[in-house]
Amino acid sequence: MKRDRFKLGLIAISVALSALACPAWSRPETQVFALELGRQSGTFYCKGIPLEAAMEKGTMGAALALDMPMSQLDSMDLSSDQAAMALIEGILGYAIDNCPQRAKKIFREFATLGN
Q: Residue 76: helix, strand or coil by DSSP?
């Protein structure tokens, strides 16, 4: 019984310390994340994956590439114009360089996202 309480205490301490080590992301860091999200999404898009699925996979890839805790992903606001521009810049830049024929269709796919 004491051993279980000891383990729970260690878990609580490690969770509390990780919260201290992961401060909230600022706007420039959000733009860095959005640009990396675009690049990661572009890699999946150029492999033939539909844009919506590529962006979902790109989100996880960007979080892993930037060593961002998943708890920060929920609190990140990507709705600003600067974040949207960084995301579009990342995905278009990668697609134009690596799959130009597919990149021509990207705006049509953007328009149908969410429908």
A: coil
